[in-house]
Amino acid sequence: MARSGTAVAAVLLGALALLVVAALAGVIVGTRVLSPGETLAGLLGQDGVAATVIWELRLPRTLLGLLVGSALGVAGVLAQAVTRNPLADPGLLGISAGGAVAVVAGSAFLGLGAGTPRVLLALAGAALATAAVYLFASRSPEGLTPVNMTLAGMAMTAFLGAAVSATVLLSASTMDQYRFWVVGALSLPDPAVLLPAIPPAVAGAILAVVVSGSLNALALGDDTAAALGVAVLRTRLLAGAAVVLLSGTAVALAGPIAFVGLVIPHIARALVGTDVRRVLALSAVLGPLLLVTADVVGRLVARPAEVQVGVVTALLGTPFFIWLTRRAKERSQ
Amino acid sequence: MIAAPTRTARSRNPVRSLLPRPRPRRRVVVAVLGTLLLLAVVSAVALSLGDEPTTPAALWEALHGRGPENTVYAVLEVRQPRVVLAMAVGAAFGVAGGLSQSVLRNPLASPDVLGISAGASVAVVSVIAIGSLGGPIGVVPIPVAALAGGLAAAGLIALLARGGGLRGRRILLVGIALSAALTALTQFLLTRIDVYDAQRSAAWLTGSLNARGWGEATPVLVGVAVLLPAALVLAHTNRALLFDDGVAAGWGVRPGRARAVLLLIAVCLAALATSAAGPVAFVALVSGQVARRLAAVPDIPPILAAAAGASLVLVADTIARTALPSQLPVGVLTGLVGAPYLLYLLQRRRSTRGTP
After folding, report:
1. B156 interfaces chain A, CB cutoff of 8 Å
2. In a domain, B10, yes or no
3. Confidence check on the interface: ipTM exceeds 0.85, yes or no
4. What is the pTM of this model?
């Protein structure tokens, strides 16, 4: 585990270098692999076919992967820090399910498609679900314990998941769209979809950076944090808002991709320790690294068809994650 | 942490005398009797409701094989198998959830969270996909595939989490991760088959009791009839299971094997129930928690978890069957009914000590 500043910087730089490689692979690799010359010509607009492939298909898709991966990685770190629960993850706390149910209801009943409406729907759904989970968990007699938070989140996920199932089962056409969106396909190479998602993602990232210092204090317990001069409630609310913005955006763009938000913070912690700021920075790089790599792998293994990124993420991430949990020494709770 | 036992049994065994007395508290008895009464009422209502509702008097006659032939047929041939199956499936899931939550001492440690249901789902969708892609259909019956998948997932979790102890974080993390991977695999298979098979699979994946009969009910009934008493006896004679390994060892009790057997029972019950009705969402998780909060004791009485699960599935299936214009799978309703109830229970003041 890297402790010193230089070691952390080295880990971060290494991860960034890997991310650049993965992003390049995202542009070059696909049903048809481009040569370096073709890639350059395409990027400069000299080769018509390569230019179309790169500028209209692969570059937007890679950007989408970068954005969604960062959002999910950071959202996972915030969710785990604010609930002090290593199992917290937007997928487990009902936040992604909130976004998903809003999007599915919007497409089934209002006929709303991708783009700005979907982003707004997902954000609103995620915000409502988060608020509901927080209210239910904090009103319990024992107060806002990690276990209550997770239980309320699972209950919300199950409730909203059942609502989605009901909607989807009653309409075969919604089912047809849903089954591809729900596994998180990045294959919507429409720059117009990407644009409305950028402002909420950026706002979430800024909030995350702002609260990361206070979250370190929060890890010591509410009372200690308050004694250290941290506004506990405000920190929680801001971190919650960041989680909503980031995971709502991710859901709108790529469906409820499970697992990235859960796994990436664990991997980052194993590499750079428990400081929230370091974990946050590394997760913002590792998240897109996992997602873009999974996307490239998904394009390669079943050519000319492709495997949805959510599937590959889970299948790639699981063995690594299990290896990590086996390696980490069990600490007494 | 669990508080030390306050009362001791009048037993000659010095170890046993240190353990909490095995006689259930009054509150547990009241909760069990209340839930069983509720179950009886709900099953009578479920037997009466249908395309042509039956009056209580006619229902009584029909249950004894008397009265108009139509009514007898509707009650005994159409509704009864389904009611019995719903109760058996619910009881199996409930006991499975209650046992695993007690043994692993974590409310999230239920078969549906840990990937047992996901394993069964992958196996079933694979069988459907093989048929859909032109392979031989029905080589492996769906219930057998579900059972094998659930047991395989449990074996995989045990293998991958070995050495981490039953109460550490590792088994939960491994289970949730495995569940995510298996769910991803299921969803991948869903995108590979045609839309009608996909929707058929989706109905199975939400959990459904449509078009099931005694053929599906019998294995679950036998399983519950054998495994529930076994769990009751084991859980009751091994009260030390509740406590830390160190405490139990101090009493001279080796909890490892009893815990493993209880978990194996939980897995078998969950896999059996999944094989009959699909991975009915949320029943295992919610039944264990409902039972624990109703009884207000740190361990979860299996009989109460069984009654809670049976009531939940039966209520959900009766609503799904009768109240809605088109039949929804029962799994949708268990989520819609069970989740708000769990949220409500989370708000209530309770007087129990310790958290499993």
Report:
1. no
2. no
3. no
4. 0.76
